[in-house]
TrEMBL record:
Belongs to the ELO family. It comes from Synaphobranchus kaupii. GO terms for cellular component: endoplasmic reticulum membrane. It holds the Pfam family ELO. One of its GO terms (molecular function) is fatty acid elongase activity. This is Elongation of very long chain fatty acids protein. It catalyses: a very-long-chain acyl-CoA + malonyl-CoA + H(+) = a very-long-chain 3-oxoacyl-CoA + CO2 + CoA.
Length: 266
């Protein structure tokens, strides 16, 4: 792809170009451990909230939930488009191996803002659970476990710009685009074929976790050759995270009957 084609397919906006990822990375290197504080406050809030709501009527938060889910839907769709375009550019120009080992994803004008937005967004996304608690819906282990571990791992990894991020973030943006779209429609009262829709979402989640494990395996293998910049502890934590999600999603879907009930797995 020549420079003209690159500019044609990868036009960056002014706010994306002006975003200083060096400042963002430096801040994360100094402050990533604050994610533990967010997670502690999150756990105290949701479990304390459940206790507080035990003897109280559930709240009708349909309109705020529609706005919340719609906002996250739009954010996820835009993030998918921007990071996905850059990943496709790498695939087309440098091949699959480079897409796995790539680090330019963290500082390319098209993607750098959306990479940092992805990482930071894991803190406000904890708010998903507040709606569940205040509406007195069933809070499954996978839901809050996922929120905590993704926040911790995202902040931990961004500071090192490890290989595999191109795939991890783009896949997450894509799956969340579908999930939050589904949540928005449900909150708005749109009738949907719940079992079939949930099967599609669950299948995409299983594919995401399986691909995450595959990417980790490739990063480890190519890291031995000196091609993939990463760390053994990062690969280990990431693999454990993806494997635990995969097993929990399968358990929740096949053994707990989530498809029939339309439960949200992530």
């Amino acid at each position: 792809m020549n420079e003209t084609d690159y500019q044609l397919h990868l036009v960056e906006y002014d706010f994306e170009r002006r975003f200083d990822e060096r400042v963002a990375i430096e801040w994360m290197q100094e402050n990533w451990s604050k994610s533990f504080v967010f997670c502690g406050l999150y756990a105290a809030t949701i479990f304390g909230g459940q206790h507080f709501m035990r003897e109280r009527q559930k709240l009708d938060l349909r309109r705020p939930l529609v706005l919340w889910s719609l906002g996250l839907t739009l954010f996820s769709i835009i993030g998918t488009v921007r990071t996905g375009r850059y990943m496709l550019h790498i695939l087309n120009t440098s091949g699959f191996k480079q897409s796995v080992c790539d680090q330019s994803f963290y500082n390319a004008p098209v993607s750098k803002f959306w990479v940092y937005a992805f990482v930071i967004s894991k803190a406000p996304q904890l708010g998903d659970t507040i709606f569940i608690v205040l509406r007195k819906q069933r809070l499954i282990f996978l839901h809050w476990y996922h929120h905590i571990t993704v926040l911790l791992y995202s902040w931990y990894s961004y500071k090192d710009q490890v290989a595999g991020g191109c795939w991890f973030m783009t896949m997450n943006y894509l799956v969340h685009s579908l999930m939050y779209s589904y949540s928005t429609l449900r909150a708005a009262g749109v009738r949907m074929p719940r079992p079939y829709t949930t099967i599609i979402i669950t299948t995409m989640q299983i594919a995401q976790m399986s691909m995450g494990l595959t990417v980790n395996g490739l990063v480890y293998m190519w890291m031995q050759e000196g091609h993939c910049p990463s760390y053994l502890d990062n690969i280990m934590w990431s693999s454990l995270m993806y494997l635990s999600y995969l097993l929990l999603i399968i358990y929740q879907s096949y053994f707990k009957g989530a498809w029939g009930k339309g439960s949200k797995g992530e």
